[in-house]
């Protein structure tokens, strides 16, 4: 059987390949893929920035697609008895390390433990490493980790199984029974954020009140329609005041936006003694977090990765009940639309709290102008750092210092000389020569840019 497969061959390079489907092995099922979801992590996988590349787990070429739903096309020997051809199924994300047909007792020690699948260093994660993702017409998958959905389940709900499982795990780890003021915050208005919101509103014995903090007006409206008590645009100041009731902030916060600033925001809106569950991935960006804020307020930071088998049982239950509202925003037809879908999901540098890009540009232009001005004022410094006596392609070993310079600039000049010896010395002369006039010109240009940006910002 010939199948089409989307393959990422390098950062931002994708191919649609045609190849033969692998035969359905022992304990395996072939699934005809009907729908695949694209989330922010897919963008990171496509761009090559996802953390798994850095740790060496994921590598190119890679077949993406970790959020999927399909129909059983073929079953191999030794599969669970309840499976039939034609059933609507979804599949667990992490499939452990052992051939799935092995009896539990014969399986790897780490995989056998509760939550062990995701801790096993030899595990396979569908669409990330070890197992191809679902951006192909037919996927070969361990039958034991398939979950059957009612035949009437719409594909736009079934395709949410994986992010829903991720949300289920985060809620499970948060232990809702411990929420002491019945108020919860979700930071992030993406699919996982909106699924979390729905889960929280239905999961707990006590009626929870949920506030959702996001950056996109349409999604915030959606959150409100889904039952959020408060849907707050992070560009608007005063979120802490809005969340404070009788002097107290909510004691449970989920961070599902996956940006460094969202993590900081999540920590800042959590009550002392509370818990912040982090489930967003930022594409390996570092977070500048003052840990005093964690220590002094005795916060618990809890990471929650993907999902585990028990979360998938809950997913099957929720999808079978039909009480979930789909949060799919766009639908594209055919595997060739993969890149278009990625570009659609690619988030603008939405930051929490949101900062207008013009604001940042203004700051940059102003700083650049100040820097250029300071250079113009210290011509002596520039002269010292720049004057490398170059004649007939021969660098003199000593830097000609014409005035007092700092150690740093002299060192910089020495570096220039040693570099100059390696390359064409005549070409090096100009880049190191700068005059006060040039610096003043630059300062003027940057000032004008800053003024224009400031004007645009005020007109908004
Ligand atoms: Zn995802
Ligand atoms: Zn294992």
TrEMBL record:
Keywords: Membrane, Metal-binding, Oxidoreductase, Transmembrane, Transmembrane helix, Zinc. The keyword Metal-binding applies. Residues 25-150 form the Alcohol dehydrogenase-like N-terminal domain. InterPro entries: ADH-like_C, ADH-like_N, ADH_Zn_CS, GroES-like_sf, NAD(P)-bd_dom_sf, Zn_alcohol_dh. The chain crosses the membrane at residues 432-456. Belongs to the zinc-containing alcohol dehydrogenase family. This is Sorbitol dehydrogenase. Its cofactor is Zn(2+). Coiled coil: none annotated. Gene3D superfamilies: Medium-chain alcohol dehydrogenases, catalytic domain (3.90.180.10), NAD(P)-binding Rossmann-like Domain (3.40.50.720). The keyword Transmembrane helix applies. Residues 191-316 form the Alcohol dehydrogenase-like C-terminal domain.
